[in-house]
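Technical annex, item 7. During the second reporting period the consortium partners agreed on a shared format for inverse folding records so that results from different sites could be compared directly. Each record opens with the tokenized structure and is followed by the designed sequence. A conforming record, contributed by the partner at site C, is shown below for reference.
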């Protein structure tokens, strides 16, 4: 790093990726800072810079002491150990050590006492809520939201007729001819554990999933104009039920609140939706399958005069970016749900949904809000219709 780049960073003050310290003598506190960065996307600690942006005047001899301190903290105070990189930078009044802590691949990281630290703005804090800790395990691929058991939801909540039809269609044998009992079959299919349906089993095959999972629904609202109104709306619906029903009702809501273009068709023909249904299918299926089920919030659909917004709880997982997904890259957040969705929805699970939607209708924008923890799809509308 050049001195000019260092000065630019200092001029912007601390944030979630950059932290300043005049000096460090305590490897325990330094280890906690490393834990927080490892759990929160990585970042850099600059030793030799005071909170007010001035330089502490560290000398060459300080660098050897600090390097040993960094090594001890990373290996003895962080569980599992990490491998930060250090760099000594010449500053106007002394030296500055830059410690680069990468985003950890083995989350959650803890200090030697088992405390999980995460970044909160420019500071750090303990991860205390269950959802926060679960998301850290999720990011490491150790747990998935769709496999969490649903309290109180047993085999008696299954829509047996629907499941029976699904089973025979996909496995070629009647359910009744199976030697295993129904709970064992559901367990073998990764839909049940310890006598409880998991989130996948409930959303896919329960008679009334929202009874136990009231937030995992779709809230759809059509507004006049191009802004959200508190009380003035054209259409509103809370869409619940099995995943297949939620998908079809969501499609129906959007198609019922956008224009249909007559074009060259006969006057009695229904007309073609201004947004191709294939694009809507891909985007809605992605929203339902890839949302973060550790976040207690519904998928939201807003229809405005000039656009349709589909907002999913949870930002893109791991290192995926908007450019990645537009190129066809994928990272399946809910593998059980995704594997079954290929059999009940127009969903292929190959990472091609976004590219297929863009090919059918290029006027689509994506926003991955990591601070707000949501993913927004904005589909432009033909405002002249």
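Designed sequence (site C submission):
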């Amino acid at each position: 790093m050049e001195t000019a780049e260092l000065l630019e960073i200092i001029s912007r003050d601390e944030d979630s990726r950059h932290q300043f310290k005049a000096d460090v003598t305590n490897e325990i506190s330094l280890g906690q800072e490393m834990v927080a960065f490892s759990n929160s996307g990585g970042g850099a600690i600059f030793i030799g810079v005071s909170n007010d942006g001035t330089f502490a005047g560290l000398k060459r001899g300080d660098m050897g002491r600090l390097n040993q301190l960094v090594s001890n903290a990373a290996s003895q105070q962080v569980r599992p150990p990490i491998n930060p990189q250090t760099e000594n930078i010449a500053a106007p009044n002394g030296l500055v050590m830059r410690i680069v802590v990468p985003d950890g691949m083995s989350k959650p990281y803890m200090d030697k006492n088992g405390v999980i630290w995460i970044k909160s703005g420019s500071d750090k804090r303990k991860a205390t809520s269950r959802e926060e800790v679960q998301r850290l395990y999720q990011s490491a691929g150790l747990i998935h939201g769709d496999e969490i058991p649903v309290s109180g939801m047993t085999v008696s909540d299954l829509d047996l007729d629907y499941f029976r039809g699904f089973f025979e269609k996909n496995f070629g044998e009647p359910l009744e001819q199976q030697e295993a009992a129904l709970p064992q079959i559901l367990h073998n299919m990764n839909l049940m554990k310890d006598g409880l349906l998991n989130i996948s089993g409930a959303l896919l095959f329960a008679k009334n999933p929202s009874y136990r999972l009231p937030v995992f629904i779709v809230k759809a609202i059509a507004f006049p104009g191009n802004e959200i109104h508190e009380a003035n709306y054209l259409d509103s619906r809370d869409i619940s039920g099995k995943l297949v029903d939620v998908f079809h009702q969501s499609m129906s809501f959007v198609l019922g609140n956008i224009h249909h273009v007559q074009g060259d068709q006969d006057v009695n023909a229904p007309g073609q939706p201004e947004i191709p249904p294939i694009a809507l299918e891909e985007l809605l299926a992605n929203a339902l399958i890839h949302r973060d089920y550790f976040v207690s919030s519904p998928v939201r659909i807003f229809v405005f005069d000039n656009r349709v917004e589909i907002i999913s709880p949870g930002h893109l997982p791991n290192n995926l970016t908007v450019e990645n997904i537009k190129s066809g890259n994928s990272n399946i957040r809910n593998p059980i749900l995704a594997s079954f969705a290929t059999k009940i929805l127009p969903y292929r699970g190959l990472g091609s949904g976004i590219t297929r939607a863009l090919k059918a209708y290029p006027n689509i924008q994506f926003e991955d809000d990591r601070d707000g923890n949501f993913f927004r799809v904005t589909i432009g509308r033909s405002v002249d219709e």
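The radius of gyration is 26 Å. The CA atoms of residues 173 and 350 lie 27 Å apart. All partners now use this format for quarterly exchanges.
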